[in-house]
Write a structure and sequence with these properties.
16 helices; seven-stranded mixed sheet; binds nicotinamide-adenine-dinucleotide; about 475 residues; 18 strands; alpha/beta; about 15% strand
């Protein structure tokens, strides 16, 4: 521990505005050389990342396990495979994405033609977070490279094993003059934010999102802010209860123990249906409850704290933050399942609370951990008012067979994205944009949207010297207007 503190101090001392300036200058020179704009360079880098993921899969799984005790299955499905797919798609589609898009011109400009040309923005800064530290660092970088930019990535210091692995792997697999990694925390990020970038892509909390946006404003730098919020899950009584319960669990505890920006933050259901839903969740989470659940139907075994299929809380700070949420006055007696904790392993059992006070922290702050409050309402339509009383979430989920309710939900609930009858999966559809709205963020990426997030759509018009009517030139006379 002492050695790592010393290494941290040394790193801090060695990174200052001058160093950041040198890096930015080099990136700018590389970009200005035109190298990163070529199709060949872009594809070579994307292939490098693809190879890196194939060849170093074990190292990536190990780093994710060190940082979060992330189960290998989750590491593969939710991080490694997502990057493989993103690279594959970008390599396959890049020529098409780079092609100028012809558009129609008005008769008044005849003869003419016009097209939209996607041009790279220049040098871009990607600041990443710790919950999917591999995916959320590399995924935006794929978009930035595909669009032809030079990139600097700053991974999260809260997932140090993954951060350091990415820094080392990038040395080996991509062009280090145009794609760089700076490791570090607040100090290093603050220094980087003082520099002039052509785009900043930030993933993390709204608190820091505001700092990023303020820094970007000084240089009129555009930003993408991928933030979080409280994602509601509405459960109607007209559902397949077992499937709904499984998918809620999958979108909460099987997703990094709830440390996912699109994780179910709270459930809304009716007073009449709540007990059925809670019982179904119990059966799947709590082994052999009342002799009813079988080992096969149970997700986390006899003792969820010992389950290898659930990540731990990332660090002591977040562990204590979550305990405080559970221990607040008026909240602790609302726990109906779970509540067990293990500070040594940084684990908290899946915990369900029913009707915690509306003004409690667990109901007002993003939980980002394995606690799931259930809020009961008289009738399911009351969910609209409750959701609208909070900032717009990154994702909203609804479980129902009722078509009218689905339509009303899609029309009336504002959210970054939504998914009916499941959780999380919408963000694996690369034809859908992924991003927030309101306080859950601005801008979006994934698939072609990633390319566009790092491109400028340049309007280009072509004319010849023909058709030079005198009507547009002075002297202006009514006759010229045919009046
Ligand atoms: P964070 O904002 O604390 O940290 C993210 C990054 O910002 C890190 O790289 C960190 O070094 C840097 N940073 C932290 N403090 C800073 C400061 N004062 N000045 C400059 N830089 C600073 O966020 P977090 O705790 O890592 O992430 C949790 C939040 O991120 C949650 O709200 C979650 O919902 C959200 N999130 C969103 C997405 C998404 O894709 N929309 C994905 C994951 C997490």
């Amino acid at each position: 521990a002492a050695i790592s503190v010393m290494a941290e101090e040394k790193r801090k001392a060695s990174f200052d505005a001058d160093k950041a300036g040198v890096i930015v200058k080099e990136l700018r020179q590389e970009y200005n050389s035109g190298k990163t704009k070529t199709y060949e360079w872009r594809v070579a880098q994307l292939e490098g990342i693809s190879r890196m993921v194939d060849e170093r899969e074990k190292d990536i799984i190990e780093a994710l396990n060190t940082d979060l005790s992330k189960p290998e299955f989750e590491a593969f499905v939710a991080e490694i495979n997502m990057i493989k797919s993103a690279c594959k798609l970008a390599i396959k589609e890049l020529k098409q994405w780079m092609m100028p898009e012809k558009v129609k011109t008005p008769l008044t400009t005849f003869p003419s033609s016009a097209e939209i040309v996607s041009e790279p923005l220049g040098i871009v800064l990607v600041i990443s977070t710790w919950n999917y530290p591999f995916l959320l660092s590399i995924d935006p970088v794929i978009g930035a490279i595909a669009a032809g930019n030079a990139v600097l990535l700053k991974p999260s210091e809260i997932a140090p094993a993954t951060s350091s692995l990415i820094a080392n792997l990038f040395q080996e697999y991509v062009d280090n003059t145009s794609i760089k990694v700076v490791e570090g925390a607040v100090e290093e990020t603050s220094v980087l934010l003082e520099q002039k970038w052509d785009k900043i892509f930030y993933t993390g909390s709204g608190r820091v999102g505001r700092i990023v946006m303020a820094a970007a404003a000084k240089h009129l730098t555009p930003v993408v802010l991928e933030l979080g919020g409280k994602c509601p899950v509405v459960v109607d009584s007209d559902v397949n209860l077992q499937v709904a319960a499984r998918r809620i669990i999958a979108g909460k505890w099987s997703c990094n123990s709830g440390q996912t920006c699109t994780a179910a933050d709270y459930v809304i259901t009716t007073i009449d249906f709540a007990s059925k839903l809670v019982m179904q969740l119990f059966l799947l989470i709590s082994y052999n409850i009342a002799g009813l659940s079988s080992e096969l139907d149970n997700f986390f075994g006899k003792d969820p704290l010992e389950s290898k299929d659930m990540s731990r809380v990332v660090n002591l700070y977040h562990f204590r933050r979550l305990i405080k949420l559970m221990e607040e006055d008026g909240v602790s007696d609302k726990i109906v399942l779970g509540g067990q904790t293990d500070e040594v392993q940084l684990k908290i059992a899946p915990t369900i609370l029913v009707d915690a006070p509306k003004d409690s922290a667990v109901m007002t702050e993003e939980i980002f951990g394995p606690l799931l409050p259930i809020v009961t309402v008289e009738k399911i339509e009351d969910c609209f008012e409750l959701i609208k009383s909070k900032p717009k979430p990154l994702a909203a989920y609804l479980f129902t067979n009722n078509e009218k309710l689905k339509k009303a939900f899609v029309k009336d609930v504002s959210a970054g994205g939504m998914l009916i009858n499941d959780t999380i999966l919408h963000l694996t559809v690369d034809a859908l944009p992924f991003g927030g709205v309101g306080e859950s963020g601005m801008g979006y990426y994934h698939g072609k949207f990633s390319f566009e997030a790092f491109s400028h759509k340049k309007a280009v018009m072509y004319r010849s010297f023909d058709g030079d009517s005198s009507i547009r030139y002075p002297p202006y006379t009514l006759k010229k207007l045919n009046l």
